[in-house]
Amino acid sequence: MARVSLSGIKKNYGGVEIIKGVDIDVADGEFTVFVGPSGCGKSTLLRMIAGLEDITGGTLTIGDRVVNDLPPKDRSIAMVFQSYAIFPHMTVRENLAFGLTIANAPKAEKDAKVAEAARILQMEHLLDRRPSQLSGGQRQRVAIGRAIVRKPGVFLFDEPLSNLDAALRVDMRMELAKLHADLGATMIYVTHDQVEAMTLADKIVVLNAGIVQQVGTPLELYHRPANLFVAGFIGSPKMNFLKAKVEAVDATSVTVGSPDIGTLVLPKANVAAAVGDAVTVGMRPHHLTLGGAQDITGRVVLVERLGNETLTAIVLASGQQIIVALPGDIEVMAGQQLHLATQAERACLFLANGLAA
Amino acid sequence: MASKFTRSNRTGWMMAGPAAALMAIFVVLPFLFAIGLSFTNQRLISPNPTQFVGLSNYEQLLGVGVLTLAPETDTTGAVLRDADGKPSYPSVRSFTRNNDQYPQYDGMREWFSFGLGDNQVYVLGRDIVFLKALVNTVIFVLVVAPVQGGLALGLALLINQRLRGINLFRAIYFMPVVVSIVVVSLLWRFIYDGNSGLLNNLLGAISLGTIPRIDWLGNPGTALGAIIAMSVWQAVGFHMVIWLSGLQTISPTLYEAAAIEGASPWQTFRYVTWPGLRNTAVLVLIVITMQAFSLFSQIDVMTGGGPLDSTQTIVFQAVERGYGKQDISGGSTISVVLFVIVLSISLIQRWLTREKK
Ligand SMILES: Nc1ncnc2c1ncn2[C@@H]1O[C@H](COP(=O)(O)OP(=O)(O)O)[C@@H](O)[C@H]1O
Ligand SMILES: [Mg+2]
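ok -> structure tokens follow
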């Protein structure tokens, strides 16, 4: 068990700066998820923590040691890869015991630790199989087992579920959550899938283009995104962004307006905006409701009925399209006009520079 | 989807056709001819009609016998000894020439002999030159296969790195492969020259003249070794490239997983690299073995089988018989024997290196 601290971490490939100064603190026993779009540098960051990539600048601390220049094996970490990276010619048992084998551990110790990991992951019956005889989920379980046997201070996961099919991914996600609860170990988990991030994390780090966008609990990110990027990235379907102008500002509220949304009074205190400023109003699809005050009117162009909810795409007067998630199974048809109510207290407001007000 | 391409194979046959036809004309047909001719007394140019002679060519080629001779005794039964105290034996010739009591030894010559107690055991052969060629070829294969395969693997490991200018090294190691073996052999004749050869000069310079000049190719003790060294050097680049392609099929994440577990370079080779090269190893071994068995050009250019038959080889003998002595049936018989040897060894190698279930 260990805390991890990144301070001013940078990474260059050749002349290209990929990670541009990252500060993150991961507390002991915390499940932290790095999330961001493909290519934003999540894996690079994780591999720097693991010691698989050199650190160009900054300080990396694991436990209370600066580990910038330590080889991977001395960092008290274990890593699980997207492609499993289990040794194809070894049985599951040999894979689990690999680290002990190369450390020349006695057989009794190997057997005990392998048995414990197999018990935790419920794969005692697979121990004598070879990877080619396992399903994807079982292979990933072997990789996780190999990590458990190391008894690391920090578990590192790089998109471990991305190669699994959707149903299995949900199962494995729950198992990982349970594993974290059982072991109480520090875990750093990289994914591009914000659902995984929301469900697993104690703390989410949103990355974009090598820069930390926001750090917080899943619900903080959902309800109070720090900027347009986080607002658009977290939550599914995506938050709707509507252009508007500031019409009035006072100490406790902002009044914004546009042809699409009419006039809206947002209960936001001390907003640094002046009348006439261009702003963006963010509304989650789930925060729009049918009927009521009838703030927004538009024509339905697409309907997805999922049973538990109904997703509709609506075109507003300006031609902008927004998504609305209506609870339950509702009879809506393309072409139909819909009148929607907004919930001003749940709307987000972003200033011209993209930051939340 | 796949069915159209796998079931309708007319196009496939047409594409494979030209190559298959050429193979049939220049490989399969001559091979069948060779089998047929090996049962006849066909000569390259002869006024006499060809006759079917059954297996007599094979008997002539492979016939061996063992003759154990007791020392000569005087009338009292005491062993007769020569001036040096060694027992004297009846002459082998008296058994192999016109001796009606031992028709099985008729026409044989002494291959080698060894003492067994007081007796002397003579191993006789009908075709001593061929037997020497057989032994030389086997020695050549037994040395070249492991040495060339091992060196090629070493080079492949060295050049399988991301270093600046690594392609230069790849090109240099591969260069001898693209130079004609005849040219290489001519060059190495200069290197091995007994007077002013490069090798002698080099050894002389290193040892400050204490190593005497050796006529590497003119000395029965060194000629085969010299040809082995030169042959290993010439083709090592080819097998290096095969190993390299095998190395590049091993997933880099396996190496990263091993690094995280703390594997040393040797352990990484043993547990990751070598198991991943299994199929490549089988291929390299079989290819080297086949190539080594067909040793010819070096012999033809450098020694012509000499000195004292110390560099005779099977293929050199086949050519020498068939064209030099115009004994086509004898040459064909040698070819068929070589085919059987190589086929058996390949099958044995495949069986030994099979994937164990
Ligand atoms: N070895 C490398 N050399 C050069 N560029 C790299 C290398 N590895 C990754 N990159 C670049 O760094 C960026 C971040 O990559 P990565 O960390 O793998 O992203 P992701 O967030 O999808 O895991 C990408 O733009 C990628 O092209
Ligand atoms: Mg990645």
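Chain A has nine helices and 20 strands.
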